[in-house]
From TrEMBL:
<dbReference type="InterPro" id="IPR021109">
    <property type="entry name" value="Peptidase_aspartic_dom_sf"/>
</dbReference>
<feature type="signal peptide">
    <location>
        <begin position="1"/>
        <end position="19"/>
    </location>
</feature>
<protein>
    <submittedName>
        <fullName>Retropepsin-like aspartic protease</fullName>
    </submittedName>
</protein>
<keyword id="KW-0732">Signal</keyword>
<dbReference type="Pfam" id="PF13975">
    <property type="entry name" value="gag-asp_proteas"/>
</dbReference>
<dbReference type="InterPro" id="IPR034122">
    <property type="entry name" value="Retropepsin-like_bacterial"/>
</dbReference>
Length: 377
């Protein structure tokens, strides 16, 4: 079962770009840094529309992550202006940032050092306090934006903005909801102000026969801390501690993708895969055609068939997949053994998806959005 990870920004999937574009530097740029892409746009006013469109898509994503909403909207609008036939996803993303254009930026103070309680979805829950009321929220690194149901938003007094919007989710289809703002909330010793959330009908956040999902804390709430650490087998979360920094010459590379960020894992064969890190999913999955090029013969002999049902904010879907058991991978210097990895056709805007099972298998994982490095230990 996968979590309810949103792909709000996945709509602006990267376009093909020539070798001279700053694509690689943008993908590895520290949180909020847009220097490379802005310089390229300024220096290449006559470049082909498809390449400038890709650069503006990168710019929109970077500004949106850093809660520079007006700048994100302008960059998204430039994507539309350069698109002969804008995709529904590009229109969705532009509308999303337009609704937030006048909202104040997210402000974060303090640090978080708090336990994560397992949820039946396999996500970790952390206590969040809004207006004196505490409730557990799921920490979902696959969700670019935090998510609430309508009833949860009403209970917490969320201030709604604009009209209904439709977004893409982790399963096929779209979900209609509204953008809201939480003026102030506390997590541990940290305070967050002006947190944007996406409010969906209760039914969209209810898993049939299982029940409603908790509120989801997305990555826009975590990025500003820069240092994110899942500790003790994913049972503890630490945010904003300098001792969790990963130096640029250590760990594994992290890169931005349209749905969030990837981590590079290394297989026993020495082959590498860029995986979208999604703690809203309880399974790690590899894009099968790419994985088959990198798995050793011994690992390929352990492949078997399976049926999987995935849940997301746009519904559920059942798929036939292959699995490989007892797979050992490295994340930086740490070695992690996964009981099972799914092989599927889902690329997750990368070369697969790393779920909460990878975090637990690794023991502890540090994510550094200043150096763009990840380390298991």
């Amino acid at each position: 079962m996968t979590g309810a990870a949103l792909a709000v920004l996945a709509a602006l999937a990267a376009q093909p770009a020539p070798a001279e574009t700053p694509e690689d530097r943008v993908a590895r740029a520290p949180f909020g840094d847009v220097t490379a892409v802005e310089t390229w746009l300024a220096d290449n006013p006559d470049e082909a529309a498809e390449h400038r469109r890709a650069a503006y898509a990168d710019l929109c994503e970077a500004h949106g992550r850093a809660s520079r909403y007006r700048e994100a909207h302008l960059a998204c609008a430039a994507v539309l202006a350069l698109s002969p036939s804008p995709s529904p996803g590009a229109l969705q993303s532009t509308a999303f940032w337009r609704a937030l254009a006048d909202a104040p930026p997210l402000a974060v103070t303090g640090q978080v050092d708090a336990p994560l309680t397992p949820h039946w979805t396999n996500m970790g829950l952390i206590d969040v306090t809004v207006d004196g009321r505490s409730m557990p929220w799921a920490v979902d690194t696959g969700a670019e934006v935090s998510v609430l149901s309508e009833s949860q938003a009403a209970d917490l007094g969320v201030r709604l903005l604009g009209d209904d919007l439709s977004i893409s989710g982790s399963t096929p289809g779209v979900a209609a909801g509204r953008i809201g703002l939480i003026d102030r909330l506390r997590i541990g010793e940290a305070e967050l102000r002006n947190l944007p959330v996406f409010v969906l009908p209760d039914a969209a956040l209810t898993v049939p026969s299982m029940g409603p999902l908790p509120p989801i804390l997305g990555m826009t709430a975590l990025y500003p801390f820069e240092h994110v650490a899942f500790l003790d087998g994913g049972t503890h979360l630490r945010l904003g501690f300098a001792e969790d920094a990963v130096p640029p010459d250590q760990g594994a590379q992290m890169t931005w993708n349209p749905a969030g960020f990837d981590v590079v894992i290394t297989l026993e064969s020495g082959g590498e895969l860029d995986l979208h890190l999604d703690t809203g999913s309880n399974e790690t999955e590899f894009h099968e055609p790419l994985a088959m090029e990198r798995l050793s013969q011994a690992e390929q002999r352990r492949i078997a068939g399976a049926t999987r049902t995935s849940f997301g904010v746009t519904g559920s879907v059942e798929t036939q997949v292959s699995t490989v058991s007892d797979l050992s991978v490295r994340l930086g210097d740490g070695r992690c053994t996964l009981a099972r990895v799914v092989l599927s056709q889902n690329r997750a805007n990368a070369q697969g998806r790393a779920g909460m099972d990878l975090v637990r298998a690794c023991g502890s994982v540090r994510l550094d959005f200043a150096s763009m490095r990840a380390q298991a230990f």
